[in-house]
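>> received
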Amino acid sequence: MSEELLINVNSFETRVALIANGALQEIHMARAGGYSATGNIYLGKVVRIVPGMQAAFVDIGLERPGFLHASDIHSSLLLTVGDTDDSAGSNIRSLLHDGQDVLVQVLKDPLGNKGPRLTTRVTIAAKFLVLTPHDIHVGISQRIEDESERTRLYRILGPLVEEGRVGVIARTQSDGVEASVLGDDFDLLLRIWQSVQVEIKKANAPSEVYAELPIQNRLIRDLVAKTTQRIAVDDENTLQQVQEYLQTYAPEYLPRLNLYQGDVPIFEQYAVESEVARALEPTVRLRNGGSLVIEQTEALVSIDVNTSGFVSGSNLEETVFTTNVEAALSIPRQLRLRNLGGIIVIDFIDMSEPRHRQEVLEVLQQGLNEDPCKTFCDDFSHLGLVLMSRKRTRKSLEQTVCEPCDTCSGTGLVISAESTCMNILREVFAQNSGLELGESKGEYLVTTTGAVIERFLGEDASFLAQVSAAIGCTIRFQNDPKISGGQFDIRFLDNPA
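>> returned
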């Protein structure tokens, strides 16, 4: 697989795109609000404990307090200053108290009305290794499957862990890396952790004590691998920053770094702009004529697979199988491109052959294996659904570039003109309840949309006349273009002009 990393820089925004085999796989954006707080370390202060949730809210200096669940608390790490206490109990009140200072790291960015998800299990990542200062052990990425390589990494990292009295995890990219390079990575992480400890002693909660790398360096660290053929940057200052980072931490990738100087903007040259626009649409057209419909909600993501009129082979089962395989090939890329996470429900088209279902699952899993985010995929359920999960640490593409519609409040729906007419008539009746016919001396003025007024002048004119006669009042209308669908205002005028 051939990959390219494209970095587009403007004074107002930095964007990074990962291209694999000519197709956009990931898009990352950093604007005025920053890129992501994930990985940042803070000295926070407990502001509220909620025993019913077995959690605490911690002020770390961001807009909203962070959420710290009891399961994310390492009891030996609680007291960041002074004596430590052996708090082995699982009850949140035995672990934390109001006003306590606690060292935490952001696991997930704030989302909607929720603050960031926090943990006291601090980790610091480098190109090939991840430092776990308070969990002294050697871990190896599960994606490194070769036993001889796993053994080699254990032999290299074991003595480093014993000497440094810290833990370390070998990332997937450490596969085949020389011992001297891994040693340099380990020394770098130790220096960073030592500087963090110095910052902790000086800090007053809430305070940031460690910030992750800038977006371009962070993504070069996390995404650039042996398969990366090119790193293209369209800004000279950023190119120099990337050169300095690579020179220090990954000099083997320096020959692949170059300045993009084309007449066409780099993202247009590689069709990134059009791909991002398509990724904001719910429907994905498959090459064989089928389609995916992807809907993102607060609780989960649903993916519906449709044939969309596609016919293949001599029978329905073959058509369905072909469409499902094509969908299974497309779904992993769509999840990465849209950065969808959490619980994901996939509704493949029903297949009667067990071997077909198994093959579709294998194709899906192969695609998910290429995803750097942690994923889990279950078998087909009795209802023919596939339930999977994908680790979510930051906002999705849709949440990053879009905002809820003022008209429909993000639902995609508005009350129909017919329903609004019925609501208006019911409200007029309600305001006249208890009054005798003709007792109301005046008329009603209804302000609403043009579509509602047109309906009252057309299909619902007879209903309007019946209500007007029943209450003994005239009902007038005026159009307000600022009013959204389903909205209206009713006023009673005692002395109509």
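>> The domain at 41-210 is CATH 2.40.50.140 (OB fold (Dihydrolipoamide Acetyltransferase, E2P)).
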